[in-house]
Amino acid sequence: MRRAVALAALSPLPDANPRVGCVIVSTDGSVLAEGYHRGAGTPHAEAATIAQANADGVDLRGATAYVTLEPCAHQGRTPSCARALVAAGVARVVYGQGDPNGAAAGGAGILADAGIAVEQDAELARQGAALNEDWTFSVTHARPVVRWKFAATLDGFSAAADGTSRWITGSTARADVHRLRAQHGAVVVGTGTALADDPQLTVRDTDGTNLPTQPLRVVVGDRDLPADARVLDDAAETLQLRTHDVDAVLEVLHERGIHAVWLEGGPTLAAAFLAAERVDEVLAYVAPAMLGAGRPAAADFGAASMTDLRRFDLVDVTSLVTPADATTPAQTDLRLTLRPLATREES
């Protein structure tokens, strides 16, 4: 089971499909074959494992398969994994997370109907689900999970009064942003940010080079972008959605198989997502600095009094230290990870 989870962690993130690992063992516990899902359009973990066994001339009849996610029942771009396990002749299947996708669920029933012993293991289910939090959320809510990232001073400003915003946080915090941005299928900004800051919105290495795999760049709003805008370069795909409707944006992205959105747009777009209650997690990078005036992290989203205060649970605090160099003193920024309270509190 531990090996199946380790294999699942090798599956790509982000991807349209869940991360899944599979290990098939003999009656004496020795490993016969193993595999994992390598991304949308490639064989699922079970199919990859069976293919490895076939290539090696290994007979899987009577074996036990450990799979981190319930084998799928449906025929999509790839065949049903449940039926593939039946055809391979395995005698027992232990799976982890139940499949929340209605189109694919039901594999356990196919296996049981074929006379295969089927067991759902609670610990394997917990670990498998932990690898697929965004995918599970997206499948069950019919929209991507939204993580709002912003950088701000101690007094809550994300840009100075003259509009400049580089750099509030140190280079270590900025590298952390790129690491997390890479785990999302889309990075979303408004036209205001695209016009004011001219960001490229790519995932870059510490030396500033773009990584080979990039999230979809999404610009929300009606205003035209200049042809030479960096967000329109060929470093990554860009989609402009000429709407101000938050749910319309999420619907389009969901239809494209995107399970997680990295929201970086300025205060207006952030306010729109907050007002629509479509912020599922906040990544706040707080610098040990103050401005006294400037552009806030979020604009007015309708909180007229303290009874409208939007409260969050603080789930993690991480220190991000940028060492001193010849021109800049050392800086310790904080990354606060917060999630909305289930019910809004009054004070």
TrEMBL record:
Pfam families: dCMP_cyt_deam_1 (PF00383), RibD_C (PF01872). InterPro entries: APOBEC/CMP_deaminase_Zn-bd, CMP_dCMP_dom, Cytidine_deaminase-like, DHFR-like_dom_sf, Eubact_RibD, RibDG_C, Riboflavin_Biosynth_HTPR. Residues 1-119 form the CMP/dCMP-type deaminase domain. It catalyses: 2,5-diamino-6-hydroxy-4-(5-phosphoribosylamino)-pyrimidine + H2O + H(+) = 5-amino-6-(5-phospho-D-ribosylamino)uracil + NH4(+); 5-amino-6-(5-phospho-D-ribitylamino)uracil + NADP(+) = 5-amino-6-(5-phospho-D-ribosylamino)uracil + NADPH + H(+). Keywords: Hydrolase, Metal-binding, Multifunctional enzyme, NADP, Oxidoreductase, Riboflavin biosynthesis, Zinc. Pathway: Cofactor biosynthesis; riboflavin biosynthesis; 5-amino-6-(D-ribitylamino)uracil from GTP: step 3/4; Cofactor biosynthesis; riboflavin biosynthesis; 5-amino-6-(D-ribitylamino)uracil from GTP: step 2/4. GO terms for molecular function: 5-amino-6-(5-phosphoribosylamino)uracil reductase activity; diaminohydroxyphosphoribosylaminopyrimidine deaminase activity. Gene3D superfamilies: Cytidine Deaminase, domain 2 (3.40.140.10), Dihydrofolate Reductase, subunit A (3.40.430.10). Its EC number is 3.5.4.26, 1.1.1.193. Binds 1 zinc ion. Its cofactor is Zn(2+). In the C-terminal section; belongs to the HTP reductase family. Converts 2,5-diamino-6-(ribosylamino)-4(3h)-pyrimidinone 5'-phosphate into 5-amino-6-(ribosylamino)-2,4(1h,3h)-pyrimidinedione 5'-phosphate. This is Riboflavin biosynthesis protein RibD. The lineage of its organism: Bacteria, Bacillati, Actinomycetota, Actinomycetes, Micrococcales. The gene is ribD.
